[in-house]
Design a protein that fits this description.
Strand content: 15-25%
Number of strands: 12
Shape: globular
CATH class of one domain: Alpha Beta
Radius of gyration: 21 Å
Largest sheet: 7 strands, mixed
CATH topology of one domain: Rossmann fold
Helix content: 40-55%
Structural class: alpha/beta
Oligomer: single chain
CATH superfamily of one domain: NAD(P)-binding Rossmann-like Domain
Bound molecules: nicotinamide-adenine-dinucleotide
CATH architecture of one domain: 3-Layer(aba) Sandwich
Distance between the termini: 58 Å
Order of helices and strands: HHEEEHEHEHHEHEEHEHEEHEHHHH
Length: 424
């Protein structure tokens, strides 16, 4: 199947501005003083490295790599490494701050970071990517560390790259240090339950929100945008809990069945069809835009950023939005969603199940012990439910949306810790 480009979005926002506008509103609601506001808005450390790599044809190509530590006030910083041609320092800074708030919302002892290399991994051989990953690790060996800064996969990277990163770092240290990175293959100390962790957290958040809104999950209809890691596991787990997933989508289009889509079948079809749903027969094809405006109880955007915008927010009929993706709602669409009375379980809360299980991977590595999937799931469900309750109560206390409440919870935790620790 030909690669399908997503439709252009007219009022796409800079992710940094999007994050900062909510950060500002929450800081004001919290009454954060200007001094601490200024501390929290600036990244603690930004590193840019150039990485000369010998390519397979013998030529030498120089790649740009970045690592931004937004905050290490709560503990070692945590965040993924992205391999993509669009990688730039502004985006890495925004994503690093996002990680700070996400870790603080779920109350895990991490700060936030993000890294990236400007490259096109789809046009590089496995050997070239391996050399690039090892060079990046060596260049940043003094930044990384299980007690300093812990990378993880992001767009364009996965368990394979994390294994190389762990190996390169371990060689420098002269011993195996598997806790320096998460998202590793299971045999190298990866955690059971990591693959489904984000979708599972979306499910826990959706059920908790449905309970508050008095939506019976057994009668609920749900539309899920994006059928990758997050969207497909969220769909499967919500279906298992009795809800009807009436629409799913990916870059090939959207698929609708009022009776409920058989998610196991859809996953099996996708897996045999190059990862796409094109031609899936268990549903009628509709447009991606139609999926967003269906009459459903719950909408789960789990594809990409800025899909709910000022252009379509007014047409959304769901009572509840549970954000599986990072930044699916443009900041300037927040007001429209709030006015319509739609409740949003925001990204920094709803998709934090992934970083929670990454934290468990690090904990297991440091213990030198392996937890069962059952233990991982039970503990991550508890963390997600507690975080949801904290954010919900904060939204009532401050009379703000769940999104602003999530930022309030996070900023409050980081700023209090900063004040206790003190500065120079
Ligand atoms: P993925 O690459 O596995 O899947 C993305 C899916 O979205 C694919 O099915 C793709 O076809 C579809 N898609 C992309 N653009 C679309 C569009 N415009 N309309 C409809 N479908 C579209 O990615 P993923 O890991 O599932 O991540 C999805 C989102 O969740 C991203 O925003 C990511 O940053 C966020 N997220 C992922 C994790 C994780 O653990 N994987 C954790 C936190 C947040």
């Amino acid at each position: 199947m030909a690669y399908i480009e997503p439709a252009p979005i007219k009022d796409r926002e800079n992710p940094f501005e999007s994050m900062m506008s909510r950060f500002k509103i929450a800081s004001q609601a919290l009454g954060l003083d200007d001094e601490v506001y200024n501390v929290l808005k600036s990244p603690a450390k930004q590193v840019a490295v150039s990485l000369p790599i010998t390519m397979d044809d013998g030529s030498i190509q120089v790649f740009e790599g970045f690592r931004v530590i937004h905050s290490n006030i709560l503990g070692p910083s945590k965040g993924g490494v992205r391999y993509d041609l669009s990688v730039n320092i502004d985006e890495v800074k925004a994503l690093a701050a996002w990680m700070t708030w996400k870790c603080a919302v779920v109350d895990i002892p991490y700060g936030g970071a993000k890294g990236g290399i400007k490259c096109n991994p789809r046009q590089m051989s496995s050997g070239e990517i391996e050399r690039l990953t090892r060079a990046y690790t060596v260049a940043l060996a003094e930044i990384f560390g299980p007690d300093r800064d812990i990378p993880a996969p992001d767009m364009g990277t996965g368990p394979r790259e994390m294994a190389w990163l762990m190996d390169a770092y371990s060689r420098i240290q002269g011993m195996t240090v598997n806790s320096v990175v998460t998202g590793k293959p299971l045999v190298l100390g990866g955690s059971l339950g990591r693959a489904e962790a984000t979708g599972r957290g979306v499910m826990v958040s959706a059920l908790a929100a449905m309970e508050k809104l008095k939506i019976n999950p057994y009668q609920a209809s749900i539309a899920v945008q994006g059928f990758g890691n997050v969207g497909s596991y969220a769909s499967l787990l919500l279906e298992e809990r009795g809800s009807r997933i009436i629409a799913i989508s990916d870059l090939s289009g959207a698929y609708y069945n009022e009776e409920g889509i058989d998610i196991e079948k859809a996953i099996a079809y996708r897996d045999q069809n190059n990862g796409h749903l094109e031609g899936f027969e268990g549903a009628e094809k509709i447009s991606g835009e139609e999926l967003l405006t269906l009459s459903v109880d719950v909408l789960v955007p789990a594809a990409t950023e800025d899909v709910i915008t000022t252009e379509n927010a007014d047409k959304i009929k769901a009572r509840l939005i549970v954000e599986g993706a990072n930044g699916p709602t443009a900041a300037n669409a927040d007001a429209i969603i709030n006015e319509k009375g739609i409740v949003v379980a925001p990204d920094i809360l709803a998709n934090a199940g992934g970083v929670t299980v990454s934290y468990f991977e690090w904990v297991q590595n440091r213990l030198g012990y392996k937890w069962t999937a059952e233990r991982v799931n039970r503990r991550s469900d508890r963390i997600m439910k507690d975080a949801f309750d904290r954010v919900y109560e904060t939204s009532i206390e401050y009379k703000v949306s769940m999104r602003i409440a999530a930022y309030i919870v996070a900023i409050d935790k980081v700023s209090k810790t900063y004040k206790f620790r003190g500065g120079f």
